[in-house]
Specification:
- The chain has 83 residues and is mostly beta strands.
- The strands form two sheets. The protein has a five-stranded mixed beta sheet with strand order 1-2-3-4-6, with no helix packed on it.
- The N terminus and C terminus are likely disordered.
Length: 83
Protein backbone atom coordinates (compact mmCIF):
# COMPACT_ATOMS: atom_id res chain seq x y z
CA UNK A 1 0.00 0.00 0.00
CA UNK A 2 1.08 3.53 -0.70
CA UNK A 3 0.05 6.55 1.38
CA UNK A 4 -1.31 9.30 -0.87
CA UNK A 5 0.20 12.67 0.01
CA UNK A 6 -2.99 14.57 -0.82
CA UNK A 7 -5.30 13.20 1.81
CA UNK A 8 -4.31 10.06 3.63
CA UNK A 9 -5.66 7.49 1.18
CA UNK A 10 -3.95 4.12 0.99
CA UNK A 11 -3.66 3.08 -2.66
CA UNK A 12 -2.95 -0.57 -3.44
CA UNK A 13 -2.04 -0.47 -7.13
CA UNK A 14 -1.85 -4.28 -7.42
CA UNK A 15 -5.51 -4.79 -6.49
CA UNK A 16 -6.81 -1.39 -7.68
CA UNK A 17 -8.15 -0.57 -4.21
CA UNK A 18 -8.21 2.82 -2.50
CA UNK A 19 -8.87 2.93 1.25
CA UNK A 20 -9.86 6.34 2.62
CA UNK A 21 -11.58 5.01 5.72
CA UNK A 22 -11.86 7.54 8.55
CA UNK A 23 -9.65 10.09 6.80
CA UNK A 24 -11.99 13.08 7.18
CA UNK A 25 -13.11 13.31 3.54
CA UNK A 26 -16.17 15.46 2.83
CA UNK A 27 -16.44 14.40 -0.82
CA UNK A 28 -15.19 11.66 -3.11
CA UNK A 29 -11.52 12.50 -3.80
CA UNK A 30 -11.01 13.86 -7.32
CA UNK A 31 -7.51 12.44 -7.72
CA UNK A 32 -8.41 8.74 -7.57
CA UNK A 33 -6.81 6.59 -10.26
CA UNK A 34 -9.21 6.09 -13.19
CA UNK A 35 -8.57 2.34 -13.01
CA UNK A 36 -9.67 1.94 -9.37
CA UNK A 37 -12.10 -0.95 -8.74
CA UNK A 38 -12.77 -0.64 -4.99
CA UNK A 39 -13.08 2.61 -3.02
CA UNK A 40 -13.59 2.55 0.75
CA UNK A 41 -14.82 5.91 2.06
CA UNK A 42 -16.34 4.47 5.24
CA UNK A 43 -16.53 6.63 8.35
CA UNK A 44 -15.93 10.01 6.72
CA UNK A 45 -18.12 13.13 6.40
CA UNK A 46 -19.27 12.67 2.78
CA UNK A 47 -22.64 14.37 2.23
CA UNK A 48 -22.94 14.37 -1.56
CA UNK A 49 -21.86 12.05 -4.36
CA UNK A 50 -20.97 13.24 -7.79
CA UNK A 51 -19.68 13.19 -10.35
CA UNK A 52 -18.66 9.53 -10.40
CA UNK A 53 -18.72 8.90 -14.15
CA UNK A 54 -14.92 9.20 -14.37
CA UNK A 55 -14.62 6.11 -12.15
CA UNK A 56 -15.86 3.68 -14.79
CA UNK A 57 -14.22 0.60 -13.27
CA UNK A 58 -15.53 0.94 -9.71
CA UNK A 59 -17.65 -2.04 -8.72
CA UNK A 60 -17.36 -1.69 -4.94
CA UNK A 61 -17.99 1.68 -3.27
CA UNK A 62 -18.08 1.54 0.52
CA UNK A 63 -19.85 4.49 2.16
CA UNK A 64 -20.85 3.22 5.61
CA UNK A 65 -20.79 5.86 8.32
CA UNK A 66 -21.23 8.94 6.12
CA UNK A 67 -24.05 11.51 5.99
CA UNK A 68 -25.09 11.35 2.34
CA UNK A 69 -28.10 13.54 1.63
CA UNK A 70 -27.90 13.79 -2.14
CA UNK A 71 -26.42 12.23 -5.22
CA UNK A 72 -25.79 13.99 -8.48
CA UNK A 73 -23.72 13.64 -11.59
CA UNK A 74 -23.41 16.61 -13.92
CA UNK A 75 -21.85 14.59 -16.71
CA UNK A 76 -23.64 13.01 -19.64
CA UNK A 77 -22.89 9.50 -18.40
CA UNK A 78 -25.67 6.97 -18.35
CA UNK A 79 -27.34 6.02 -15.03
CA UNK A 80 -25.49 2.71 -15.26
CA UNK A 81 -22.43 4.40 -13.74
CA UNK A 82 -24.23 4.97 -10.43
CA UNK A 83 -23.38 2.44 -7.76
Amino acid sequence: MKQDAAGGADVDRSSLTVVCEGAGYTQVPRDLPSTVVTVDLSDNAVQSLGPLSRLRHVVNLRLRGNHITRTRDNSSASPGYWL
